């Protein structure tokens, strides 16, 4: 285990970024391309869209609901063996899915088994990455999560091409082989020990402090609402385009357009998140609002040109909100609590991932088209952006962008995480006269009265 007093903002951290890049590609690139299989499963099993939608929803929900398990195991054994084990489970689930004879088999193989593998890979990797970066955290997150956009761009036409030659069973066998590369991603992770770690309590105390921390709870609710509508285009867009008499290959190409825009959005958002003054929550709210609007407008577009324009807008804004959603969490809870905090957020927002796609499929079955599905999905994102406005310092122009929120503000009986060095120092450290007065017996209570000011360094 590497030992540092503060996040190195580089070094081996860039290898962790590389690992997270491929890991996000192999997890969410597959999930985002699931709409390619959606049409095949509807035809193969002669089931309604709502029932087939449960396959992806169960996978997303298990991945997120099982995140605390991955976090707890990573805290005890380190992220490397946990992520490697998750890669084996993800590949095994896809392998068994290729032999499925009913939707129940797909629920268990892709949804439960592969979802469990994804739960052991995604959260520990991003939590490990958060501990390696402080000043450049948003950029590192953006670069790591560009793997989702690149893989979506590559996987959508690739899977469609494979389906035309090997059918869905053979394609799932190949996806299983690709997923096995998650084992190599896990091998690149190196645990990092930081100076604030000894001051952080055990998992039970961390959980109790987070459950009494108002901003964290509001942020979790916001992400849950966002998650409910976020994945709808990746599950139902191809089917929606086929309702408009599009051929399968051009419909899959539109997913690639979204993926390219998503890639650009993640990099631009990560860069902006580190240089734009003010709280990250403001940028996150902006991208979330624009994503919700673009989702709601999808049914209004019928011709190819406006559909491509909306695909570009949705891809950019939905990609832009993702790195900020993850880089903001350490600002609320501190890097010492990031494993517990990220696992808890992923678990709660799994409710949205579980209900979003089936609700969209149900609305399609009831109304006969996807208009209500996309409008409702956009409404969920707009509701989430409204909650983000309630986070601390949202309207404060001079609030630092990367300053952890003090858990003690709404949980007085718990200790706040240590501040990251280089961002602030105490008034006592700044004033030599205060240092002289702080000698034993002269100013015994100075520690309880000191305030913090931004550091110029």
UniProtKB/TrEMBL annotation:
Compositionally skewed regions (Basic and acidic residues) per UniProt: 421-434
Q: Name one GO cellular component term.
A: Golgi membrane
Q: How does it sit in the membrane?
A: Multi-pass membrane protein
Q: Name one GO molecular function term.
A: monocarboxylic acid transmembrane transporter activity
Where are the annotated segments for Disordered?
A: 402-457
Mostly located where?
Answer: membrane
Locate the coiled-coil region(s) and give their ranges.
Answer: none
Subcellular localization(s) per the UniProt record? Cell membrane; Golgi apparatus membrane
Bilayer-crossing residues are 12-31, 82-100, 106-127, 139-159, 165-189, 216-237, 249-268, 280-301, 307-326, 338-359, 371-395
Record keywords: Cell membrane, Golgi apparatus, Membrane, Symport, Transmembrane, Transmembrane helix, Transport
Where would I find the Major facilitator superfamily (MFS) profile domain in this sequence?
A: 13-402
Q: Which CDD domains match?
A: MFS_MCT11_13
Entry-linked InterPro entries: MFS (IPR011701), MFS_dom (IPR020846), MFS_MCT_13 (IPR048233), MFS_trans_sf (IPR036259), Proton-linked_MCT (IPR050327)
Pfam families per the UniProt record, alphabetical: MFS_1
Its function? Proton-linked monocarboxylate transporter. May catalyze the transport of monocarboxylates across the plasma membrane.
Family of this protein: Belongs to the major facilitator superfamily. Monocarboxylate porter (TC 2.A.1.13) family.
UniProt name for this protein: Monocarboxylate transporter 13
Q: Which organism is it from?
A: Myotis myotis (Greater mouse-eared bat)
């Amino acid at each position: 285990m590497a030992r540092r007093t503060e996040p190195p903002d580089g070094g081996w951290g860039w290898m962790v970024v590389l690992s997270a890049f491929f890991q996000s590609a192999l997890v969410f690139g597959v999930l985002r391309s699931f709409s390619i299989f959606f049409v095949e499963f509807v035809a193969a099993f002669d089931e309604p869209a709502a029932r087939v939608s449960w396959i992806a929803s169960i996978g997303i929900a298990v991945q997120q609901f099982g995140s605390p398990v991955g976090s707890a195991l990573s805290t005890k054994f380190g992220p490397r063996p946990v992520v490697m084990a998750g890669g084996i489970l993800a590949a095994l689930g896809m392998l068994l899915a290729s032999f499925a004879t009913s939707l129940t088999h797909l629920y268990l193989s892709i949804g439960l088994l592969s979802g469990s593998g994804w739960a052991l890979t995604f959260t520990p990797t991003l939590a490990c990455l958060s501990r390696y970066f402080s000043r450049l955290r948003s950029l590192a997150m953006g670069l790591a999560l560009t793997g989702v956009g690149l893989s979506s761009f590559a996987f959508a036409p690739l899977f469609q091409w494979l389906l035309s030659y090997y059918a869905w069973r053979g394609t799932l066998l190949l996806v299983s082989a690709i997923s096995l590369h998650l084992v190599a991603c896990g091998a690149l992770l190196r645990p990092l020990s930081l100076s604030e770690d000894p001051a952080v309590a055990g998992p039970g105390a961390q959980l109790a402090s987070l459950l009494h921390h108002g901003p964290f709870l509001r942020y979790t609710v916001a992400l849950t609402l966002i998650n409910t509508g976020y994945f709808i285009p990746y599950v139902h867009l191809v089917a929606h385009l086929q309702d408009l008499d599009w051929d399968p290959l051009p419909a899959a190409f539109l997913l690639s357009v979204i993926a390219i825009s998503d890639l650009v959005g993640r990099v631009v958002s990560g860069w902006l998140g580190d240089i734009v003054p003010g709280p990250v929550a403001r940028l996150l709210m902006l991208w979330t609002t624009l994503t919700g609007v673009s989702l709601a407008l999808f049914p209004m577009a019928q011709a190819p040109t406006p559909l491509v324009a909306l695909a570009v807008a949705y891809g950019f804004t939905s990609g832009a909100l993702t790195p900020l959603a993850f880089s903001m969490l350490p600002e609320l809870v501190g890097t010492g609590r990031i494993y517990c905090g990220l696992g808890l957020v992923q678990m709660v927002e799994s409710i949205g991932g579980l209900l979003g796609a089936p609700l969209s499929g149900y609305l399609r079955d009831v109304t006969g088209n996807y208009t209500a599905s996309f409008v409702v999905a956009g409404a969920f994102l707009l509701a989430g952006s409204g909650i983000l406005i309630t986070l601390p310092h949202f309207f404060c122009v001079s609030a630092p962008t990367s300053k952890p929120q003090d858990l003690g503000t709404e949980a007085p009986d718990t200790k706040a995480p240590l501040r990251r060095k280089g961002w602030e120092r105490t008034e006592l450290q700044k004033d030599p006269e205060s240092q002289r007065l702080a000698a034993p017996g002269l100013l015994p209570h100075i520690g309880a009265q000191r305030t913090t000011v931004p550091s110029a360094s």
